[in-house]
Design a protein that fits this description.
It is built from 15 helices and 21 strands. Strands 1, 8, 9, 10, 11, 12, 13, 16, 17, 18 and 19 form an eleven-stranded mixed β-sheet that branches. Strands 4-5-7-6 form a four-stranded antiparallel β-sheet, covered by helices on one side. The protein has a two-stranded antiparallel sheet with strand order 2-3. The longest helix has 25 residues.
């Protein structure tokens, strides 16, 4: 009898364990995604951080978004109207949206968020020169600018202008890190400084009928390149972003690994200080452009993981124009004979027969600044060799990025290999060629910056695009720099049924992520 009871008891225990095991597989919490990130964000507070990436962007949802055709449409915003003078825009919010805290995303909440943004965010210029923020009704608010600010709509597709729940802040407007609340797909549940950020899908987010495709996301911060690769290969990491080019082929051979490629919106360029006498002649600038072989740089530096760009804007940026890109490609396809001819017409000739052109007894000798990124240094060496073929003696100086940022506005450089990234053509105005704003290229031509200034205040999108097209035509003709390429954003993943990276913002689209069963 005792033996029978014992066997029955053991059978019940085993059965219970089996049931508990089956139940555990079905419970939430099993589908964790581990993301390896290079660097830890300085803050998860969008009004305090110096940069946004996957590790802190998922907390937020943007006011506007791109549709499948690349048009900017409402996201948290249902619709909007622009006043005839372009200085006022009235926004109607979607009803029923909640912050992670459960508080409603209404006009009062968005107004309070904008006020904090304008008060203290390092990126407050993204919102323009706002003079007034008004609550019109529960879900309608109005922004008034001192001057129309057309880039607002592009800028509001990013998270820098996303609303936060100010009710979680203390009396000093701080404390977001302790109790973050916004409208994004992920809700922050744990911060381990120097180690990781842990998120779970927000139950306030609209995941669709099937719900989220995962239960937990942990961002591990692993700055060492080899350690990141090793952790991924060992299976301790599911998502490996910014894969170094030299590891791509190796990871492609790993069983179960998929490489996801998305073009970046950061455009690398060869620039120079256009105020230097040596660059004053347009023929010299055009000759330099014709000497560059982008495909060679891409193949030998980035193992083919980049796309050549000839025009002033990368494809992901609002204002990019295929007609302009084709015009620039035809004009500046590599042509060494034409480049040498242009230099000769400008008075630069190889009089000493040593391979270096001269003018008025002075050799064409210039120095180029490049940062300490090994890939950029390799690209600089290839450019050095290519310019040598048309008689230009180029030396290379490696500088800290901070030094380049600090000293180029003073015009301390001759040439530089640099980059920029923004999703709106206004970048040509506020960073590259605007009146008093050309801090790297020092190229200020009234006809160009007049067009760019008009583009910044033109609220009609079609008219605005035409202004940027005209400005880009002038830039292609005058060649004050040489656009080079956009690198591919390379991500290695495993264990997913679905995974998607936004083609413009280069961020993981968590609504379209599903862990494999």
């Amino acid at each position: 009898m005792k033996k029978t009871l014992t066997l029955l008891f053991l059978t019940m225990i085993v059965f219970a364990l089996i049931l508990s095991g089956c139940g555990k597989k079905a419970k939430k919490g099993d589908r964790e995604i581990i993301v390896a990130a290079i660097s830890e964000p300085d803050s998860v507070d969008v009004h305090r951080t110096s940069s946004m990436g996957d590790a802190n962007s998922a907390l937020y949802d943007a006011l506007m978004k791109y549709d499948d055709d690349g048009n900017i449409v409402g996201n948290l915003v249902k619709e909007y109207t622009v006043s005839p003078d372009g200085k006022e825009v009235t926004f109607e919010l979607k009803e029923g949206v909640e912050f992670h805290s459960g508080k409603p995303v209404n006009a009062e909440a968005v107004k309070a968020s904008f006020e904090r943004l304008m008060e203290s965010s390092p990126f407050k210029t993204n919102a323009g020169d706002i003079s007034k923020i008004e609550v019109v009704s529960e879900y309608v608010f109005k922004l008034t600018w001192n001057e129309p600010f057309a880039p607002f709509f592009t800028n509001s597709t990013s998270n820098y202008l996303s609303p936060i729940d100010v009710s979680v802040l203390d009396s000093n407007g701080e404390g977001f890190e302790k109790n973050p609340s916004a409208t994004g797909a992920l809700k922050l549940v744990e911060i381990k400084r120097g180690d990781s950020l842990v998120y779970e899908p927000s139950d306030k987010y609209d995941w669709g009928p099937d719900g989220p495709g995962f239960d937990k996301v942990t961002f591990r911060f692993i700055p060492d390149e080899e350690t990141r690769i090793l952790e991924f290969k060992k299976g301790n990491v599911d998502v490996l972003g910014s894969v170094p080019y030299q590891y791509i082929e190796e990871l492609e051979k790993e069983e179960g690994v998929t490489i996801v490629r998305v073009p970046n919106y950061v455009l690398s360029y060869l620039g120079w200080n256009n105020k230097k006498p040596i660059f004053q002649d347009v023929r010299v600038r055009q000759a330099i452009a014709m000497a560059i072989d982008r495909d060679s740089i891409i193949t030998n530096t980035f193992r083919g993981e980049a796309k050549p760009v000839f025009g002033p804007l990368p494809p992901a940026t609002f204002g990019y124009n295929e007609k302009i890109e084709e015009m620039a490609r035809n004009k500046y396809a590599r042509d060494l004979d034409k480049a040498k001819q242009l230099l000769s017409e400008a008075g630069w000739k190889d009089t000493n027969k040593d391979g270096i052109v001269m003018k008025d007894g002075n050799p064409f000798k210039v120095d180029m600044w490049v940062d300490n990124d090994p890939a950029n240094q390799r690209a600089a060496q290839i450019i050095q060799s290519q310019l040598r073929e048309i008689g230009i003696d180029l030396s290379i100086s490696v500088k800290e990025s901070a030094t380049i940022i600090e000293q180029t506005p003073q015009g301390a450089h001759e040439m530089l290999l640099w980059s920029f990234g923004w999703l709106d053509a206004d970048v040509l105005n506020f960073l590259l060629f605007g009146d008093g704003k050309s801090t790297r290229l020092h190229y200020e031509v009234e006809e160009i910056y007049s067009l760019l200034e008009k583009g910044a205040v033109e609220m009609d999108q079609e008219k605005r695009l035409k202004l940027y097209e005209d400005a880009q035509k002038l830039l292609v003709e005058q060649s004050p720099w040489v656009p080079l390429y956009v690198k591919e954003n390379i991500t290695a993943i495993r264990n997913f049924e679905e995974f998607e990276i936004h083609p413009r913002r280069n961020l993981i689209i968590w609504q379209n992520v599903k862990v494999a069963k």
